[in-house]
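Input/output pair, single chain:
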Amino acid sequence: MSALFLRHTEGEGRGPLGWFFRQFNRGFSWVLRQYERLSKFLIRIRMIVVGVFILGLAATVVVYTSFPNGFVPEEDQGVIVGLIQAPDGVSLASTEKVAQTVYKTACGFWLWRYRWL
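Output:
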């Protein structure tokens, strides 16, 4: 029985699945031909393609240097936000001492030294 189902047949077959595969193969062949035509065209004008790429790269550099912080969310702009929670009844001086310790620790990282100096 499985030999009947698994036998090799030439072409896409008949019936609704055969029709589907014929249409799919026809569409895929069309896309493949268009891709081949586009590739050959771009290879013929490769110097123009390289020039457009270089212009795009230069435009990226100009936009990046003009708006260095425009696309970075506020949360990612090099600010450390923290919460210091002390037990009830602790004095303000003790809380400030802990805050200074946290600040000195944060400034000890090599990235932060250049940021805050």
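Residues 89 and 110 are 36 Å apart (CA to CA). Helices lie at 2-6, 15-44, 46-66, 92-108, 110-116.
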